[in-house]
């Protein structure tokens, strides 16, 4: 169901960080394992849909952040899985009304694609944040965003 290259991904260091109460997220091992499996599904959607902005759920995004922070591992893993560096653009949805709408639409599409590929979504794990849904999103060809970063003067 999940491509072998993603199944073979060593996520144990990220699990260690996720369960650490001082330096990590303080998650239980059981919860971290569940999120790591959902992260594999997220990566699968990214691999199989390189021209679509796949939006991860909040805690899957947090797990992705842990992966990104191990820069050498993340770079090597991206090359192994995708053949390119999978960028994280944390501003999608923050740059005005249209951008927020695009984020909501990308979230809805991501959920639909997840259900088509993996079946029923676990609503306890696939939770968005107040900004609908979270901070992490990606797209190989910058379809969901451009390089414009938000500015303080643009805040409402």
List the helices and strands and how they pair.
Elements: H1 4-7, H2 12-19, H3 29-48, H4 58-69, H5 71-81, H6 97-118
Description:
By secondary structure, the protein is mainly alpha-helical. The protein has one domain (4-144). 49% of the residues lie in helices and 0% in strands. It contains six helices and no strands. It has helices at residues 4-7, 12-19, 29-48, 58-69, 71-81, 97-118. It is globular and about 40 Å long. This is Glycine-rich domain-containing protein-like. It comes from Conchiformibius steedae.
Mean pLDDT: 87
Number of helices: 6
Task: Report on the biggest sheet.
Answer: none
Low-pLDDT windows of residues:
130-145
> What is the general shape?
globular
Protein name: Glycine-rich domain-containing protein-like
Organism: Conchiformibius steedae
List keywords for this structure.
Glycine-rich domain-containing protein-like, mainly alpha, 6 helices
């Amino acid at each position: 169901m999940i491509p072998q290259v993603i199944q073979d991904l060593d996520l144990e260091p990220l699990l260690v960080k996720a369960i650490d109460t001082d330096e990590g997220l303080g998650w239980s091992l059981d919860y971290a394992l569940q999120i790591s499996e959902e992260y594999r599904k997220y990566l699968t959607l990214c691999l199989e849909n390189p021209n679509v902005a796949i939006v991860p759920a909040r805690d899957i995004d947090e797990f992705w952040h842990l992966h990104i922070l191990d820069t050498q591992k993340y770079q090597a893993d991206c090359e192994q899985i995708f053949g390119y560096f999978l960028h994280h653009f944390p501003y999608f949805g923050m740059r005005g009304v249209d951008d927020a709408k695009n984020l909501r639409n990308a979230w809805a599409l991501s959920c639909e694609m997840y259900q088509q590929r993996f079946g029923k979504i676990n609503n306890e794990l696939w939770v968005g944040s107040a900004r609908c849904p979270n901070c992490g999103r990606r797209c190989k060809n910058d379809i969901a965003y451009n390089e414009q970063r938000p500015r303080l003067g643009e805040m409402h």
